[in-house]
Write a structure and sequence with these properties.
The protein is α/β, with parallel strands linked by helices. It has one domain (about 10-295): Alpha-Beta Barrel (TIM Barrel), CATH 3.20.20.70. About 45% of the residues lie in helices and about 10% in strands. It has 13 helices and 8 strands. It has helices at about 25-35, 55-70, 85-95, 115-130, 140-145, 150-155, 170-180, 195-200, 210-215, 215-225, 230-250, 255-265, 280-295, and strands at about 10, 40-45, 75-80, 100-105, 135-140, 160-165, 185-190, 205-210. An 8-stranded parallel β-barrel has the order 1-2-3-4-5-6-7-8, surrounded by 5 helices. Helix 1 (about 25-35) links the parallel strand 1 and strand 2 (about 40-45). Helix 3 (about 85-95) packs parallel to helix 4 and helix 10 packs across helix 11 (about 230-250).
Length: about 300
């Protein structure tokens, strides 16, 4: 069974300076450090990368910066979803020219009431037909308000250039349907660290997690434990990861994630307005959660 993108990926942040410019130096330093961890690879320009906040020139430049720091034997996935099929194809082709290994394509959402299964199948089919690199579907209903249903995923999974799905919801029933209704060589990624254990038990092939930026070793270990059927150990790890997973996910979002990265010695940078930096109460919360977690899980040695 060939699943070249199975594993654990970090959907990396885009650091911004106080002048609201992409901080390329911080981005490079972060990626260099992530490449010293057991992560399978990274995803650039996803939700945590504030992709909708960047114009096309900035987005293309971010891809170039990250590609230069990711070794050729580590996969780089880029978010290329746009509101129109035409713009999505154009962004995917630019990403391919920049050396990206696969495109992660979110559902269009502005006209969400019209985003039927048939329309989404046509959109993704046209993108995949035109894309020079493999396409991964991206269902992130919490932001788009559009849910890519299992019927659509099943139909699209038969396309030779659509190789997988990132499901960012916590509906394990829907995840299980995605797994059971798609071919064995179709990769299904979990996108929520709060239900990572359950998603892996349901058959997910890996994960794309904000938490993997902060705790890459632990997220990879979770997958390894479930694969080895050490389920008690995996469930214990899930329970310990849950507080910080909730804080940098649904509770406080990108601002908290960037603050937590700062606590861990990365360079989160500022979020781009209209998003604002995390308030001190949130910074205190994530700091405490990371400190409590460190009491159970030793900090890996820096290289």
């Amino acid at each position: 069974m060939n699943k070249p993108f199975a594993g654990v990926f970090a959907p990396i942040v885009t650091p911004f300076t106080a002048a609201d410019e992409v901080d390329e130096g911080a981005l490079r330093r972060n990626v260099t450090r992530w490449m010293k961890t057991p992560l399978t690879g990274v995803v650039v320009l996803g939700s945590n990368g504030e992709a909708p906040q960047l114009d096309d020139l900035e987005a293309d430049r971010v891809i170039d910066v990250v590609r230069a720091e990711v070794p050729s034997n580590r996969p780089l996935i880029a978010g290329t979803g746009r509101e129109s099929t035409r713009a999505t194809i154009a962004a995917t082709r630019r990403a391919a020219r920049a050396g990206v290994n696969a495109a992660l394509v979110r559902t269009p959402s502005f006209f969400k009431a019209q985003m039927t299964t048939d329309l989404l199948v046509r959109h993704y089919t046209e993108v995949a037909d035109a894309a020079p690199i493999p396409v991964l579907l991206y269902n992130v209903t919490m932001f788009t308000g559009v849910n890519l249903q299992p019927d659509a995923v099943e139909r699209l999974s038969g396309h030779p250039n659509i190789v997988g799905l990132k499901e960012s919801g916590s509906d394990i029933g829907q995840l299980a349907e995605h797994v059971s209704r798609t071919p064995d060589d179709f990769t299904v990624f979990a996108g929520s660290a709060t239900t990572l254990y359950h998603a892996l038990c349901a058959g997910c092939d890996g994960a794309v997690l904000a938490l993997a930026m902060l705790l890459p070793e632990e997220c990879v270990r979770m997958r390894d434990l479930v694969t080895a059927r050490r389920l008690d150990d995996a469930l214990t790890l899930q329970r310990r990861l849950l507080p910080i997973a909730k804080s940098v996910g649904t509770a406080y979002g990108v601002a908290a994630l960037k603050a937590a990265l700062d606590v861990k010695g990365y360079e989160g940078g500022l979020p781009r307005p209209p998003l604002r930096p995390a308030p001190q109460t949130v910074i205190d919360t994530v700091t405490r959660q990371l400190q409590e977690l460190a009491a159970f899980i030793p900090e890996p040695a820096r290289t």
